[in-house]
Amino acid sequence: MRTRRAIRAILPVAALAALLAGCTPAPEGGGAPDTRLRVGDITFEPCSLSAVGARAVEAQCARFEVPEDHDAPDGRRIGLALALLPAEGTAEPDPVVMIAGGPGQSALESYPQVAAAFSDLRRNRHVLLVDARGTGGSHPLHCAAEDEGSAFDVEQMTAEAMRAFAERCRDALSADGTDLRRYGTTDHVRDLEAVRKALGAPQLNLVGISYGTRVAQQYAKAWPEATRTVVLDGVVPNAMVLGQEHARNLEQALDTQFQRCRDEPACVGTLGDPSAQLDAVRATLEASDLAPVQYRHPVSGEWLEDRPSFGHLAALLRMFSYQPAASATLPLLLHDASQGRYAPMMSQARMLADSLDSQMAQGMQLSVICTEDVADMAIDPEDAGSLLGTGMVEFFHAQCPAWPTAPRAGGFRDPLSGDVPVLAISGEFDPVTPARYGEEVTRHLANGRHLVAPGQGHNVIGAGCMPKLFAQFVERADASDIDASCLDRLAAAPPFAGNYGWEP
What we know:
Elements: H1 14-17, E1 23-25, E2 37-39, E3 42-51, E4 54-67, E5 77-85, E6 96-99, H2 107-110, E7 127-130, H3 159-173, H4 185-199, E8 204-209, H5 211-222, E9 227-233, H6 246-262, H7 265-271, H8 274-287, E10 293-296, E11 303-306, H9 310-320, H10 324-327, H11 330-338, H12 343-359, H13 362-372, H14 391-399, E12 422-427, H15 435-442, E13 448-453, H16 466-476
Parallel strand pairs: 6-7, 6-8, 8-9, 9-12, 12-13
Antiparallel strand pairs: 1-2, 2-3, 3-4, 4-5, 5-7, 10-11
Catalytic activity: Release of N-terminal proline from a peptide
Signal peptide: 1-26
Organism: Luteimonas padinae
């Protein structure tokens, strides 16, 4: 049995540096001008942040050491990767910290994809990025697969194979003494506080994205006096068990998206009912031993050959539903597959697998979920017939007994409360963190407000006028009187009616 991987955002010169509040140029050693930047006790050097499909962003980068176990400060230490995006003018003393999702994504690698959304904020505030321990450049915990292939053939794995994969990953990652118990949310939160103190920042403005919203809430609970504002994009309530509701949330999102096709004569008339086609294609992929299909690699153009599986289709339906422009293509994808044209599905699945495998640090993900969530996971029989089924819960039930964990922090599931200013933002069609989660979080907050972006999916920080709205919130530390009527201009992309796109 072949095993697979786990299931699865301005280079300153010395003259500019002198303008940055709280920042001073590092001492020159003679010769060429020194473009390093010192903030508090941390010295940054020029660097470039890059991500596939996004323009590179010039920044200042640094390494910052922390104890692997904060309760044993004299023990083993690990390095964290930091990046600073300096303010364009004189900066306020409280930087904005973007916290990436996953769990398992790198903040430094994710930022170029959302950099434009932070342009208003950078007029008078630095943006700070910290790769969570176990991701990116912070002692990454990547699990290598035994062989090549789709990262989404997990449904073909037995529980024994899943467990064996986790054991191999555990043994490989811990061979150098790494304590895998120390790579969860609470550890990341303590790292952020250590960085804040080293920078000399009196407070932080937190911007959590997806799983990063859990981190932001846990930080604000632990250090409310050090938290000036919190923005939560794609809200994960503290009470939510990661993975437990993914199946039902996706079903609801797909039902809504498919109804939009049925309501559009050009879509349903040309491509048919996507719900009915999904049922038919699923039955074919699950029951038939289909012949291998040739298709081109979407990036290199190389001809490849692979056997279509339901895993390929399920992965595309799940991940494409995150964004309106991608979900608009799903009726066409299902129509092609129903006609036996699997090459488009295979090509897109390959592109998706390559992207997610490189972005996610699976070992860090296991450290988070096995410590914080798996004990609360339960198989829901009602999920059995859904697109995702019970596979995600079964996956972690199989792997987590092999993974080292620490006790979950006390009060971890308690909601964030108090008077910290919080702006929660959600997409109307979000398939993983639906808008009701934002309502659940803000109802505990005296200074919380929830905005829903019409027609949008997962992560809406860059949608329409949202960058201006959340910049206003950070500036005022108050969301109550922000005029959000501009969001009414947002709408979902129409469903495709053919290869040419949607009807004009």
